[in-house]
């Protein structure tokens, strides 16, 4: 995963388990999809995103305080996964 000033990019596979059984990948995917849906449903901010198998690109500008809190919460979850599975999740 890479973090930019204007967005977040998640790419690759965790390779922790077989396709469909990779709990690390499933956790990152759930957090990523929840972030997108939460910003869309709980704020007035507009974001762009492209999500496909093994990849998500989220881009934004001028997030509100509420959206920044959602992004911070996303990173708390991602960091917890990265701490538990450092060989499978990398944040740059």
What does this 3D model show about the protein?
This protein is of the alpha+beta class and 92 residues long. The protein is built from 2 helices and 4 strands; from the N terminus they run E-E-H-E-E-H. Strand 3 (48-52) and strand 4 (55-59) form a beta hairpin. The longest helix has 20 residues, at 23-42. The radius of gyration is 13 Å and the shape is globular. The N and C termini lie close together (6 Å).
Overall pLDDT metric: 95
Radius of gyration: 13 Å
Summarize the biggest pleated sheet: 4 strands, antiparallel
Task: Give the overall shape, derived from the CA principal axes.
Answer: globular
Distance between the termini: 6 Å
- SS content category: alpha+beta
Content of β-strand: 15-25%
Write the element-wise H/E pattern from the N-terminal end onward.
EEHEEH
Strand order of the largest sheet: 1-2-4-3
Q: Using DSSP, what is the number of strands?
A: 4
* Helix residue percentage: 40-55%
**Poorly predicted segments:** none
What is the count of DSSP helices, taking H or I runs of 4+ residues?
2
Secondary structure layout plus pairing:
Layout: E1 2-4, E2 7-11, H1 23-42, E3 48-52, E4 55-59, H2 65-84
Antiparallel strand pairs: 1-2, 2-4, 3-4
Summarize the model shown.
The protein has about 90 residues and is of the alpha+beta class. It has two helices and four strands, in the order E-E-H-E-E-H. It has a four-stranded antiparallel beta sheet, with no helix packed on it.
Can you give keywords for this protein?
2 helices, 92 residues, 20% strand, globular, alpha+beta
């Amino acid at each position: 995963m890479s973090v930019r000033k204007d967005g977040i990019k998640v790419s690759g596979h965790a390779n922790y388990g077989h396709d469909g059984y990779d709990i690390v990948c499933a956790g990152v995917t759930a957090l990523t999809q929840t972030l997108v849906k939460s910003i869309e449903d709980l704020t007035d901010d507009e974001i762009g995103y492209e999500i496909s198998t093994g990849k998500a690109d989220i881009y934004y500008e001028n997030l509100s305080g509420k959206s920044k809190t959602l992004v911070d919460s996303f990173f708390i979850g991602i960091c917890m996964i990265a701490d538990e599975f450092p060989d499978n999740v990398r944040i740059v």
